[in-house]
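Notes on consecutive records. When two proteins share a document, each keeps its own sequence and its own token line. Never mix them. Below: protein one.
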Amino acid sequence: MNTAPDPIRTEALFVSSLQRSQSPTPELIRETVTTTVDRLGVARCAELVAQEFGEHPDCALGRMRWARNAVRSAFA
């Protein structure tokens, strides 16, 4: 799914189990995004993002910022 637009990649990384504290490499980020989109699909990733923002808005914003920046860097 390397051709997915950044918003889809960002959502996929956001809902994955990969954590910022793991200091993931760009390769691991790309692999995680591809695997997550293939496993869940675009619509399910979006649903899980919405659910997380609804249930944990205090944590979700920081994770989304990290995911967006990590995707931009890994797919540059």
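Protein two starts on the next line and is unrelated to protein one.
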Amino acid sequence: MKNISNIKKLTFGLLLLLSVLSLAIVNADYQNPIVNVVKVAAPAVVKIDVVVQTEVYIDPFIREFYRQFFGDIPRQFEESNSVGSGFIISKEGYIVTNYHVVKGAKKITVTMLNGDVYDAQYIGGDEELDIAVIKIKPTKDLPVLEMGDSDKLQIGEWAIAIGNPLGFQHTVTVGVISATGRKIPKPDGSGYYTNLIQTDAAINPGNSGGPLLNIYGQVIGINTAIINPTQAMNIGFAIPINTAKRFINQIIATGRVEKAYLGVYVRTVTEALAKSLGLKVTKGVYVSQVEKNSPAAKAGIREGDVIVKLNGTVVESAEELTSLVRNYTPGTKVKVTVNRAGKEITLDVTLGTLPSQNGSSTTSSKEFYGLKVSNLTADDRSTYRVPAGLEGVIVKESKNSFIKVGAVIYRISVNGYSYDIKNISDWNKVVDNIKKGDYIGIFYYYNGVNSVFSFRYN
């Protein structure tokens, strides 16, 4: 009996061993395609370290008090460090990233996966689109990422993010495409990021500027934003690579982008507006005025129309419409759907060149105190919600932390004398005559509030 018991135990042991061995070889020859994507793509993803120098604000009254006893306070600056991501797009060393990653950079350093470190040069970019290009001088052959087609994305397909979240270099996260065509408000309230890709692949601070890849290893987006990480988990957003592709060559060639222009003054349709004007829709963008000879006028858009779609994307606010238009380059043909007295009409529009970049660009205005300005356009008024009666120049670039992009400067005071600023000509006349030691007050409108920034010009 004892021998029989031992035989049973041996038999059971052998069966158990065979079952374990059979489990161990399940999918033995399987090769995860994500592993292959990372092997090929990761070497072309870089870590971007940035040193930013900002001027320390000193209250004008403290500055004047100090000057009376000790002389002028020298301008003071402080440095801060940040980290982001980017990806190489050419053997010549051009790298795409987010504008906010390299904005105001005094020094940019790029680190490769293999540990190679390069100093990088800022080539150009655009804050509104949040796209920038930097360049390194390679000492060896560089790995390059292939760009895909973000217009063909399908909900549920794989999404792979590679970047440097929280400084952890070359971190890989995986998820799916959760949605396309998303819009989220910008942190400063100046408008919207539109037509974004939503993914549940984890995106954290430091991922910004890195690539979102498909299962073929192609770039389908630029990781750019997360929604309040303390409240929302696994909701990240990326700029579609097709949007970036429209502007990358422009940035490399000229250092800036040339954005499109529709030429309408618009207001977001609200319940009150719809009822007061007898509109047949409750959502959309009401056209209060069409600029003469603008692309909108030439296409047949009329005052009183309500724009409800642009190229098939539903439009619900004035800021959203402006952001969508700016995602295109001049000369692009788009379809604009309007509701006209209850009937939907789709019009073909050839977008023009934003006037502030054609004849009255920021290059024709004098830079002063880190500010570059241009004349106001209808699109600017829509984007930054500038009141119809307010005249001035709009800040397009700002190298100081006091007056933001989108602020409208309408008056400058110099040593107690005030000068109205209605256009670039007024601006140039005033700033041309400012001398060191002058006391300056810049009156501006931003986000519904009138403010004044005062300082002594050194």
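For the record: Residues 2-24 form the longest helix (23 residues).
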